[in-house]
Design a protein that fits this description.
There is one protein chain. The protein is an alpha+beta fold. It folds into 2 domains: about 1-90, DNA Polymerase III, Chain A, domain 2, CATH 3.10.150.10; about 105-180, no CATH class. It is built from 4 helices and 13 strands. It has helices spanning about 10-25, 70-75, 110-120, 140-150, and strands spanning about 1-5, 30-35, 40-45, 50-55, 60, 65, 80-85, 105-110, 130-135, 135-140, 155-165, 170-175, 175-180. An 8-stranded antiparallel sheet has the order 6-2-3-4-13-12-11-8. A 3-stranded antiparallel sheet has the order 5-1-7, with no helix packed on it. A hairpin with a 2-residue loop joins β9 and β10 (about 135-140). The longest helix is centred in the N-terminal third of the chain and has 17 residues, at about 10-25. The termini are far apart. About 40% of the residues are buried.
């Protein structure tokens, strides 16, 4: 296996996101997908949302899941444009991902609201509405995840977008995003 991220700054940015994920869940897994010149990183969080970021580069195989701690070690310790991201643990990935289609902006959440939402949110209120705009409801769990990851680090706004099929919600935080399915998956009983 091989993960090639040519620029040191991009490797550091990926390591930063993976480090935040591993801090929240030391057993987290990270899915790496090659999209033709870019590597997209996906990771689950304890808040039932995904974290994603991307960087120019490639990964072989083109879609692989690795232990977050292994990937963090590879990106943090080995100072090289190409690293071994760790052993494949594809069977540990749970859930699906949004499609590759475009995202439609629907508004922006002032970063100053994140702390207020976290302060009033408990385990029983994570699905309460934290922000609403453009006909879209952002549950508190999305902003709790933003804070849990240690974001935002400045006073900017957090852009909110919907996937092309409107099935997924994305809250952008600098070079990364929190992503959550808007509609529950239907169980198929056979």
């Amino acid at each position: 296996m091989s993960l090639a991220i040519p620029a040191a700054g991009d490797r550091a940015a990926l390591a930063d996101v993976v480090g935040r994920v591993v801090r929240l869940d030391p057993t987290a897994v990270v899915r790496l997908r090659d999209t033709g010149g870019r590597v997209v990183l996906w990771a689950g969080t304890p808040f039932e949302v995904l974290v994603t970021t991307e960087a120019p580069g490639s990964v072989i195989p083109g879609d692989v899941t690795v232990a977050g701690s292994d990937l963090l070690a590879a990106l943090s310790v080995v100072d090289a444009p190409e690293v071994d991201p760790g052993s494949a643990v594809d069977d540990r990935w749970r859930g699906d991902l949004p499609g590759d289609g475009p995202w439609r902006p629907v508004g922006a959440i002032p970063a100053s609201e994140v702390d207020a939402v976290v302060a009033r949110s408990g385990a029983s209120s994570l699905d309460d509405t934290a922000w609403e705009g453009g006909g879209v409801r952002v549950p508190a769990r999305c902003l709790v995840a933003v804070a849990g990851m240690g974001w935002p680090e400045d006073t900017a706004t957090l852009p909110v977008a919907l996937s092309g099929d409107e099935g997924w919600l994305r809250v952008e935080v600098g070079g990364a995003s929190i992503v959550r399915r808007r509609r529950p998956r239907l169980a198929v009983l056979v």
